[in-house]
Design brief:
Blueprint: E1 3-6, H1 11-23, E2 28-32, E3 52-56, H2 62-72, E4 76-79, H3 86-91, H4 93-117, H5 120-125, E5 127-133, H6 158-177, E6 181-186, E7 188-190, H7 199-208, E8 213-216, E9 222-227, H8 228-241, E10 247-250, E11 255-257, H9 258-272, E12 284-287, H10 302-308, H11 316-329, H12 331-337, H13 340-350
Parallel strand pairs: 1-2, 1-4, 2-3, 4-5, 5-6, 6-10, 7-9, 8-12
Antiparallel strand pairs: 9-11
Helix pairs in contact: 1-8, 2-4, 4-6, 7-9, 9-11
Length: 353
């Protein structure tokens, strides 16, 4: 018994691989292209572990995917690999179409061929689990009900549009070809190994360096925040018991405004790593909002709770404290990921704001 994980050196994927192997001994074949956000240091604790087979490669490489499926005969594909940052998608949408749309298409076709050749129990047990985002649903009004799995798709950025396209492909491969798929749509993740282009890790690393803490617009954009290890447990639950062809929302029941996140991170840093220059909130800097910035996302995860008994284990207060402490405890990891390419990206995205 083996599973194939794509994007397993990225933020959510690496947490999933580590969590999976901590829960049991079923091996993982981990395919990752190691783009800027993929980092083998995330998986350093698995060095020499025979249960983890890492393959450096691209999900758009059909021959490689075919080879891995034939060689390892996984019972499931868990598909994390994606370009995932809205700001990057605004500056360069082509990479998002290639990875999120073409890459998912390539995987689906390879999985369909592999599944079609299986027999008996192997065939009936096979699953293709596609990990997606709540951003495909668009933006919610302040008093609107949270997104359910039946909410219409209304993507507003190149990133969310590319993920919506991939979701539609997965659905179509089930309804047209019978491929046994599962889709999960999650809210904003946070936790260990999060690349510091996203809000929470960017706040932490900038604050520790005494740099401005950029807040888009008025900072009142609201997101539902999900601790990454809760997300991993939700995916495990869907893979184990989800109904084929169904979509499951995975959320943290933690709606927070961005400006409130900033204040909480600053307060935790004031407590855990006080700065002689004064409270970290002095570094907060409001910058021009991103184009088409969605005002609110919120996930209704009751279907997953009702059918599979899943709920998040962390509150936002417990999860954010663990997250801040992890970054304080891992300065070498932070220093390594802040490469020249990362600094160039920060300049590109924030200089004109």
């Amino acid at each position: 018994m083996t599973i194939l994980v794509t994007g397993g050196a990225g933020f959510i994927g690496s947490n999933f691989v580590l969590d999976w192997l901590a829960q049991g001994d079923e091996p993982v074949v981990n395919l990752d292209a190691l783009t800027y956000a993929g980092n083998l240091r995330n998986l350093a604790s698995l060095q020499g572990d025979a249960r983890h087979v890492f393959v450096h490669g691209d999900i758009c490489d059909r021959a490689l995917v075919d080879q891995l499926l034939a060689q390892h005969r996984p019972r499931a594909v868990v598909h994390f690999a994606a370009e995932s940052h809205v700001d990057r998608s605004i500056h360069g949408p082509g990479a998002f179409v290639r990875t999120n749309v073409e890459g998912t298409f390539t995987l689906l076709e390879a999985a369909r061929a592999h599944w079609g050749a299986l027999q008996g129990e192997e065939k009936s047990a096979f699953r293709f689990l596609h990990v997606s985002t709540d951003e495909v649903y668009g933006s919610l009004a302040p008093d609107a009900p949270a997104f359910t799995e039946e909410h219409p798709y209304e993507p507003n950025s190149p990133y969310s549009a590319s993920k919506a396209a991939s979701d539609h492909l997965v659905r179509a491969w089930h309804h047209t070809y019978g491929l046994p798929v599962l889709t999960t749509n999650c809210s904003n993740n946070y936790g260990p190994f999060h690349f510091p282009e996203k809000l929470i890790p960017l706040l932490i690393v900038n604050a520790l360096a005494g740099k401005p803490l950029p807040v888009y617009g008025d900072g009142r954009q609201i997101r539902d925040w999900l601790y990454v290890r809760d997300h991993c447990s939700g995916i495990r639950a869907v893979l184990a018991g989800g109904r084929v062809g169904q979509t499951y929302n995975i959320g943290g029941w933690n709606e927070q405004a961005n400006i409130d996140i900033v204040q909480k991170v600053c307060a935790l840093l004031d407590e855990l790593r006080p700065d002689a220059a004064g409270p970290y909130a002095r570094l907060v800097t409001h910058v021009a909002d991103r184009p088409g910035h969605d005002r609110r996302y919120a996930i209704d995860a009751r279907k997953l709770e009702r059918e599979l008994g899943w709920r998040p284990a962390e509150t936002f207060d417990s999860g954010i404290r663990k997250t801040v402490q992890w970054y304080l405890d891992h300065p070498d990891w932070v220093a390594e990921v802040q490469s020249g390419a990362y600094r160039e990206w920060l300049s590109t995205n924030y200089a004109a704001r």
